[in-house]
Amino acid sequence: MVAFSAREAVSAVSPLLGPISEDLPLDAVTTGILGMLPTAGFAVMGFLAPPLLRRIQLEHLLLVSILLTTLGQVGRALGWNIPSFLVFTGIAMLGIGVVNVVIPPLLMRYFPDKTGILATLHITLLGASTAVAAQSAIPLGNLYGWRFSIGIWAAVSAVAAMPWLILLAGKRTVARSETSPAHDGPSPPANAIKPWRSSIGWGAALIFAGCSSNTFAALSWLPAVLVDRGMSQDTAGSMLALYSMLAVPVALIVPLVVVRMPRPLPVAILFVVAFAIGYGGIIFAPPASAVVWVVIAGLGQGAYSFAFTMINKRTRSQSGSGILSGFAQGVGYALASVGPFFFGLLHHPGDGWLPSFGMLGGWLAVLSVGAVMVNKPRMLEDAFRAARPAANEARN
């Protein structure tokens, strides 16, 4: 339920930019900021969540994040001007950002022997929620107005909070071992794990940066690109829904494949190629064939499933998973936030969006570098477990 509520706030707006602009005048800069807010919010919480995880129980932190998402969606639906609309959108994205960080360690806590299957379910529902909100945006907006269309998803977030309220009220939190049975061996203390000193940490961050800059630029700008190429607004909204929906089949497959591959680099490269081919078709092929290229580019979203799965694949403990999740998403989304912002600013009438997509090609190179860095089979905690006794011996 949390997964299904964690993407509507992102994808429900871009199909409605036209109707929203009639009430709230959105220019290119404002739209760029709006597109940047998801990755910026995710980045902020990526940095803040690890310290919070040391002080607040995972379940409590998740509940707070759901309530923030609900508040943000209600507030922006009532937004009376552009600043209020942007502020409440930012609040919703902060809430989703916490969800992004706490889910991997929660899976490690409750389902240490089933992280692949549960990651598959989680990412599948993320894709489904993105597609449902995008496809429903225009029909709901035509019937009840854009404020209802983007605000109704707050009800889904509110419902997602209920099971966690019941769990916490009943004090039925399951105590699980900090170590996954899939990875034997002691782990260092959480404060000894420093992902910024590890190629695993930076590799995971670059993967998130590369895939998120591409995915969120598409979620923000794909309808505008297709409309500029001659497609109707309704059809462009459906193309965004199709693009979002394609995250579902790859999410069903990728985690199950990646957890079984010692060196999963070929999977990541496959998604890079899919993005590149899809972009080429969207830019250069006849507009009538746009659906083919949207499908191919949409399959590239499997890179997010890859990034999410690698967090638990390259860690052996709940604390390690939470620390890597926070660092990778904090740094990755911070870097990725420039993608949606500059995608619009780089576009000028008559350039066919070539500079904008060229920028995304640069981020695909970043994704590839990150995938190479995490490809070698090893665990984040191991380097610090080995380094800690050596440091103690040196001091003695």
- Average pLDDT metric: 84
Shape: globular
Radius of gyration: 21 Å
Helix content: over 70%
> In percent terms, what proportion of residues is strand?
under 5%
Produce a short descriptive summary.
By secondary structure, this protein is mostly helical.
Helices, strands, pairings?
Elements: H1 8-11, H2 17-23, H3 28-53, H4 58-77, H5 82-110, H6 115-144, H7 146-151, H8 153-169, H9 199-228, H10 233-245, H11 247-258, H12 265-284, H13 290-299, H14 302-313, H15 318-336, H16 338-345, H17 354-373, H18 380-395
Helix pairs in contact: 3-5, 3-9, 3-15, 3-16, 4-5, 4-8, 5-15, 6-10, 6-11, 6-14, 9-10, 9-14, 9-15, 9-16, 9-17, 10-13, 11-14, 12-13, 12-17, 16-17
Structural account:
The chain is mainly alpha-helical and 396 residues long. Helices cover 76% and strands 0% of the residues. It is built from 18 helices and no strands.
Keywords:
396 residues; mainly alpha; single chain
